[in-house]
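User: Can you help me understand a structure? I only have the sequence.
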Amino acid sequence: MKYRQAAASDIGAIAGLHADSWRRHYRGAYLDSYLDGDVLADRRAEWAARLSGPQAGLHTVVADHDGEVAGFAHVILDADPAWGAYLDALHVRHDLKRRGIGARLIAEAARAVAGRRPATGLYLWVLEQNAAARAFYAAQGGRRAGRELSGPFPGGGYAFSLRYAWPDPSVLARAVFAPGEGDGQDPAVR
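Assistant: Let's start by predicting it. Here is the structure, written out as tokens:
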């Protein structure tokens, strides 16, 4: 597994993974009519906008498994003056979950934040209904720091979301696997 900066050539794979993840995990918050419709075209347009031009203030890292995108994390730097950088998306291919890919992706995102904005925190919003994601973020040391009704989501729909925060993302960045652990990649390899 290699972790690298996303490129325009990854747009289709990221959009496909993103759409699949939303369909699996966002039912009940996002409208079924949207999720059962052409959510892939929506995600493709979004990722084309994010990855086709300059990415000032954005950072997207992908987990590359034998030339295929296995997961990705997308961070918006300077998103909030109080909370810092916003982890807007973190998704891992369904068949590759529970292999440490998500932990490595969040660590790589945190490393980018710590390197580019060392005095800022990192936060995200997760759907309250997504118990597995909430457990994952808590296991990564995220502290719950708020709850609000979110929406309307793409296609409509509302649901409660929880904020998880890391005031010092360098703690996550240091959690990157040591050589010989996890997926066997040296943390310096990108």
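Now, to help you interpret it: The chain has one domain: 2-173. The two ends are 10 Å apart (CA to CA). Let me know which part you'd like to focus on.
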